[in-house]
Specification:
alpha/beta, Chitobiase, domain 2, 4 strands
């Protein structure tokens, strides 16, 4: 069972669908591999490519992937399994406070 989101901020944006092209700044752990496999299965065999950035505060990510306010929120949030999911024309960014938070963010989808 996945935890319910504590906060959702909806903004008007989209990105092209397609097979994921992954960017990570952390070691390829089992959790990262599971997240990548999950996204690959969801994307299917679309002809295009979709940039996907994965990471966590715990293991590392590129600070430029988030706004200053989102970086601050992730660093100050008291819940270790928190995550931020951003969808924009540049692609999808999923960052967790820890690796499990990143995995939960990958597995979050509208119901």
């Amino acid at each position: 069972m996945l935890p319910f989101p504590q906060q959702i901020t909806a903004k008007s944006s989209s990105c092209a669908a397609g097979r994921p092209l992954f960017h990570c700044h952390q070691p390829a752990t089992n959790v990262v591999e599971i997240a990548m496999q999950s996204l690959q299965q969801y994307a299917g065999d679309s002809a295009g490519r979709m940039k996907v950035r994965l990471g966590s505060l715990e293991k590392g990510y590129n600070n430029s992937w988030l706004s200053d306010s989102d970086n601050h929120w992730l660093a100050s949030c008291g819940r270790p399994q928190s995550s931020i999911v951003t969808i924009s024309p540049a692609g999808i960014t999923v960052l967790g406070k820890d690796e499990i938070g990143m995995l939960y963010g990958v597995q979050t989808h509208p119901s």
